[in-house]
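quick one, 311 residues, struct below
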Amino acid sequence: MMELLTQAFLTSLLVGVVASGIPLLLAGLGEQISEKAGVLNIGIEGMMLTGAYLGFYLAWQSNSLALGFVGGALGGMITAALMVIFCVWLGLNQIVIGIALTLGAEGATALLHYIQFSRTYPRLGSIDPLPIPLLSDIPVIGHALFNQPLIVYLSLAAIALLSWIYRHSNLGLYLQAAGDKPAALDSAGVDVLLIRSVAVMITGLLAGLGGAYMANVGAGLFVPFMTNGSGFIGIVLAMLARGRPLWVLGGAALFGCCLSLTTALQVAGIDIPTDVIQMLPFAAVMLVLLLFGRHARLPNALGVAYIRGER
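---
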């Protein structure tokens, strides 16, 4: 009996880690791209929330999960486009604009949800997973890790893709230079504003996908303010990862574990107040920052607007 409870607890915990960690992973990877290019994207929480709403709405209207993720990516990129206009092109304060975008997205999505659904919360149908043969049959971890929707596998593949881009491509060099030495990059004939604009738009795409995953797969419905600080945790992950996508995965798994403890402990029959469990991710953020924050490596020109001709 104890062995069955242990297996149920571990399986439930791993399922929750994936469900909670994938949005954090996508947000962290997106923020990492933006920060490498020198843009501190405080608005990533708003991008996730916009992606969550538009992704859910299109999935609900079309009964298509794929179209829902397209809508999520589009929602994130719409918000990111505002970040590009105000911060990259006009050179306004990135922190102020980022906070404004987040607050605006919170208000807009809550209002749109109320207009569309009033006080009801419609749910999507069940999601068909894509099991990996043989691996999905492994006890405990098989169902949790290898019986997931396609978006989970694509998110993990993005880690390898970004690692290759950072280390072995010109685009990776351009991103690094745009964040560290934008004037030198400009002198080499590369458009700094273009590189930063592309970086922020990709950030919006990934953040929007993370929000859509949260609504369509993790919860199956949209609730106003449902991101609940996930975007800000993504910022912490990006800062602490020191340019390494794999470290973002490790951090997302850690915070995803904290977020998923409620369900896992309920399965195991352990009664702990929900408020205590919900506090764990933010306590973990403070602990991680205390231990490793001083070792975070940030680009020299992070948060500094680039104006051609200025030094």
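The chain has one domain: 2-118+148-295.
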